[in-house]
Amino acid sequence: MEKLINKSESILDVKDLKVSYHTYAGEVQSVRGVSFDVARGEVLAIVGESGCGKSVTARAIMSLILGPQGEIKDGSKILYNGEDILCYDKKRIREFRGGECAMIFQDALTSLNPTMKVGNQIIENLVAHRSMDKKTAREEAIRILESVGIPNAKERIDQYPHQFSGGMRQRVMIAIAVACEPKILIADEPTTALDVTIQAQILELINELKDRLNTAVILITHDFGVVAGMADKIAVMYAGQIIESGEKREIFYNPKHPYTWALLNSVPKLGWKGKQLLDTIKGTPPDLIAPPKGCAFAARCKYCMNICLEEEPKEYSFGDIHKAKCWLYSEELPEEILEEIMEERKNG
Ligand code: SF4
Q1: Which ranges form a coiled coil (predicted)?
Q2: Which helix (H) or strand (E) holds 28?
């Protein structure tokens, strides 16, 4: 297939991805023009509230948007090493999914096959994608289960998912995902239902695998603590769009978008004393059957101006990769107003 890009450092380049679901109520525009890239050995964290389109974006990369309800719109591109996976045939998609790109789903209990021994769920991947015979695949499956910290892997390989605890099931999911040494690993809220100790172990495991296999990781989460520990780059999603993106330090120490400010303000800070209430983001995200014509965050933004209600914000750049979509950075806004807002933000 013809190479569409020649950008050696980027293994995955998503361009203007639009995904809709056709429902009885109308067309839900779940993802509305998302673009990002990720390189080998890099961790991109996609953050945002539930329903903002994070998981739908991940499913689109895995070719799991199923018709007729789901639709990836014309003009969307998902370039893997320069090839558009949206042009792959079924055979090539099967090779890509599992073999080159794998996903750790949110809920291991519902994602694992309850009727199949965990070992067989790994072995079938090894046979399909690494052309191993069953005996070699079984030995390799035991080795992989050991490498993700499953004790007594030789015995546990013949057990069913319900015989594992929540943390151990999540490790099994990781074992299945990494069995074929994927070049891209998508982790969709991989630690949501786990306690903090297990959460730390699972994240450490993903980090180790990334370092060992030089895998590109897309980490989907709403937990800024997880992001702080793992990410190189961050994309903040709201109402189906990326409204701010940049390197981790830029987003944490110099965020530009009022939604990113609000998200960061809702995280507890070290050094808080007594009863300090967390900030919340009042209101709810817009209905994506009829998204607002201006800024999608306008109804919840205390800095909303007339133009925000009328026109979708342009994307402004603040460095090599730091970008935000917000009218506050328009050349037409008097400088002193922006300075006042920044001052107010600094003083909490
Ligand atoms: Fe707020 Fe306007 Fe910026 Fe949207 S464009 S975040 S409404 S200031």
Answers
A1: none
A2: strand 26-39
Domain range summary for the chain, segments of one domain joined by +: 101-179
Q: Give residue 274's pLDDT band: very low, low, confident or very high (50, 70, 90).
A: low
CA neighbours closer than 13 Å in the CB half-sphere of residue 73: 18
CB of 326 within 6 A of ligand 1: the answer is yes
Structure tokens at 308: 């925000």
User: What CA–CA distance (Å, rounded) separates 71 from 194?
Assistant: 33
pTM for the model: 0.90
What pLDDT, on the 0 to 100 scale, is given for residue 348? 66
Handedness of CA 302, 305, 306, 312 (dihedral sign): negative
Could you tell me the distance, in angstroms and rounded to a whole number, from the CA of residue 283 to the centre of ligand 1? 15
Question: What is residue 193's predicted lDDT score, i.e. its pLDDT?
Answer: 66
The atom of ligand 1 lying closest to the CA of 301 is 1
CB of 236 sitting under 6 A from ligand 1: no
Longest dimension (CA), the chain: 71
Distance CA 181, CA 98 (A): 9
pLDDT surpasses 80 at 91: yes
Question: Which band of pLDDT confidence, cut at 50, 70 and 90, is reported for residue 282?
Answer: confident
Per the CB < 8 A criterion, the answer to whether 235 and 218 are in contact is: no
Please tell me the predicted confidence (pLDDT) of residue 7.
39
CA of 147 to the centre of ligand 1 (A): 47
The number of beta carbons lying within 10 Å of the beta carbon of residue 230 is 19
